[in-house]
Amino acid sequence: MRNACLVLEKDFKISPVDKRMFGSFVEHLGRCVYNGIYEPGHETANPNGFRTDVIELVKALNISVIRYPGGNFVSGYRWEDGVGPVEKRPSRLDLAWRTLEPNIIGINEFAEWCKSLGSELMVAINLGTRGMQDALNLLEYCNHPSGSLYSDMRISHGAKAPHNVKLWCLGNEMDGPWQTGHKTAGEYGRIAAETARAMKAMYPDIELVACGSSHAKMPTFADWEAEVLAEAYDTVDYVSLHQYFSNETSDTKNFLACSLETDYFIKSVVSICDYIKAKKRGKKDINLSFDEWNVWYHSKKTDDKVMKDDPWKIAPGLLEDVYAFEDALVIGCVLITFLKHADRIKIACLAQLVNVIAPIMTKQGGGICRQTIFYPFLHVSTFGRGEVLLPVTFSEKYDSADFTDVPYLETVGVINEEEAALTIFVVNRDLENSINMRCSLKGFEDYKIVKHIVYQSENLKAVNTVDSPDNVIPVEKPVIYDTDETGSPVINLPNASWNVLRFKINCGNAL
Prior knowledge:
Elements: E1 2-9, E2 13-16, E3 23-25, H1 52-61, E4 65-68, E5 92-94, E6 99-101, H2 107-117, E7 120-125, H3 132-143, H4 149-156, E8 167-170, H5 185-202, E9 207-210, H6 223-232, E10 238-245, H7 252-255, H8 259-279, E11 287-295, H9 300-309, H10 325-340, E12 345-351, E13 360-362, E14 368-370, H11 374-383, E15 387-389, E16 392-394, E17 397-398, E18 406-407, E19 409-416, E20 421-428, E21 435-442, E22 447-456, E23 475-477, E24 482-483, E25 489-493, E26 497-505
Parallel strand pairs: 1-21, 3-4, 3-12, 4-7, 7-8, 8-9, 9-10, 10-11, 11-12
Antiparallel strand pairs: 1-16, 2-15, 5-6, 13-14, 15-19, 17-18, 19-20, 20-26, 21-25, 22-23, 22-26, 24-25
Helix pairs in contact: 3-4, 3-5, 5-6, 6-8, 8-10, 10-11
């Protein structure tokens, strides 16, 4: 058993949590759209063909914003193919994933689906094979009430009310050589700046996300952000970050430390944004949109073979990672890291939502399950709304293959004054030992622990599937704890576990 301490001061706040941090991502890739969210003929399908069992789980996650339609897919996408009478829509070859896109679902259907969830739509535009004029056409189609070519076209397609899309991504991963229409930083920075300027001339209150590096190990990382923002600082509001995690070497201790790389990535991009702000004598902060992130490695060999040997199919099974319990611990660590940077991360999108590297898996014509990674996201989305408190932790540390000084304890606290609640999220990275964590709560006069959720598995490789959906699920433990000589609660955290501690504050019933 190890000992650790978390110190939280009620008045030492990092930032309010932006609700858009609890976002996700839907791309026309694999079975995410077709035979994922949309499966007409399924016993749960609504009149529009969308699976209501999927809708139920997405609503449970309280997804605030959904990025659409890509991803790599968007860099060759013609949005006009997905509007108008379905029977007249063309099928197109998607170069990104070597599949056939039938265009049954387009911007209008997806916007209505988002409304049914209470989720905000975040639209990515094609700056790969297309450009400024197409972006303006799509903006007019989505947001203008009526009386113009594209707004009247939308109305003729049955969408009388504008979609009023607020968030727009200026392309996707344009630094990547794999991207259709890949550009240098100078080329992309110029088209992003000009497109942003034109879009804001039409609707000044929209918010725009410029493409940052596809990941922190790109050879152009840092130079890319600096050059793009040198062009686009005045016209964009966010820069994107993408990051995926893997345990291909089966080194779990190292895998559980990978959120340290996320922390470094965030700090580096913030530094670049602030450097450009200073260089331009700017007055606004460029904030971060972490609009692709997840664990992704389980399915890669199979995916490569399918795309190479059996291309041009509609909705083949691609990127269908079946997540282990250890993946859920990594997701928990990353979510905690995001909260620690709530002052600059205003948007985050777990990639993706259904079937494709997703928290929700479906079987065509059959059932549905919550993957292991579903639960940490559910907990943070449910209890992580409020203001983040600056955590000071005292924890033993370890070294791994790629990281040094990795704390066994990864934790953060969020206070919600309206609910009179404090929530502490904790991952115990120690694979063998439990941790007794002392909670030193400064400025909290009256509080008590009312809930302790523990997510743990003796088998770190355990999974949930449609056939075995409840193999690994969190449990609510009886609230049992000791106190130290100062009266601070000491809570036992099992080895290799995700924990949610809920405190009732200002309750007039001190410990």
